[in-house]
Each structure stands twice: as C-alpha cells, then as structure tokens.
Amino acid sequence: MAESKTSIFNMAIARVGNKGDIQDADTDTSEEARACRLFYDQVVNAALRSYDWTFAKARAILSRSTDESSFEFDSIFDLPSDYMRQRHVYDDVEPTDISNFSYSIEGNQIFMNRLLSSVGESTTINFKYIKRETNTGRWDPMFTEIVILNLAIKIAPKLTDDPTGLARELTAELHTLLLPMARTINRFEGPTKGAIQRPTWNSAQRGNTGFRTDG
Do residues 61 and 127 share a domain? Predict the structure, then answer.
C-alpha cells in the first residue's frame, strides 16, 4: 500500500526515536510536524534529481520559444513546468542522444544548436525527462524509503539529543544499503533496445551502430 505524506512524516519521526503520531502533515502544529514540513519539499526534489526513477519518467513535445536571446545557439525551447532532470532529446524522426547537439539548460529553458530532420529544420523536439511527481501514491516503495531516511537525517538535529551520531548512522544506512539496492532494482526496469530501434546517422559515425560487421 502506498504511503501518504502524513505516514512518511510519522516514519521519519520514528527513525529519530520519537513517537510519530501526526494526524495531518499539512496542519499539525507539533514541533515534529513543523520540522518535517521545513525539509520535505527539498528532500523530495533532491531525491528526484538524483536518479532516473522509472515512476517519474515523462515525455513532452517542446515547441520553439519566441525568446530571441539565443546567442551562441539557434533555438530555445521552454522546459516542462514539472521538469526535474533531463534524460534524452529526440528530433522528429528517430531517437538521438542529446550529446549529438550543442546544448545548455539554463533556468527553465534548453538552448540548442540547429536541429535538422529529413524535412528540414525542426521546430519541435521530443523530450524525455524526470518530472516532479508529488503524488506519493505513485512513488516506488524504495524511493519512499529514501525520502523517509533523508527526512529523518534532516530533522535529527531538531528532535534528538545526539543529532551527529544518529545522522551519521542514518547516512551510512542510506548510502551503503538503501541507495545501491534501490538503483539496482530500478535499473532492471529500464527500457531495452529491440530490433526496431535503429541507430542514427550520428551514432553510426561514432561507431555506435549496433550493426553486425562480421558478414
């Protein structure tokens, strides 16, 4: 069963040795609830930025911006409002690794050089990214556990008598056990390359073709 924001607060509080009995994460006025609210958004955002979580993967077709401040680049595209981390960019024909283009993500925009397709200059790009998924019901259980542990580390100084020792213990658990396990599981659920995914001309030039050369 998916955890709610309130239950995440209570489990983080329990990890620092306090009794987690918050009834509503958004309205509870206890010291524990205030401490959790202070750090919660930042903890979630940082965790989303840290890895290509399958539950947070999203796609969008980005249209060229009317912004004219694109010196050094030919095109500007506005990033999705829920953007957290870039994964891949595609032209309008077939998948292409973003490294084939000069680009720079600045603020809420991506600046790119000329994009050419079989029909001429592209006015859109197909963008794959990690979104800010705030619905805890859609989170992977391993991601939820990472948020709980990180939140516990953040609130420990406010709620415990030995914040340094406890934070060190929780940090060790996070980095030596939980993060490697979560990323391993998540990696196995990623996309695979089938026969339909043909290499692009740019990847062929780099020798990353996937074509057989043994006749």
Answer: yes
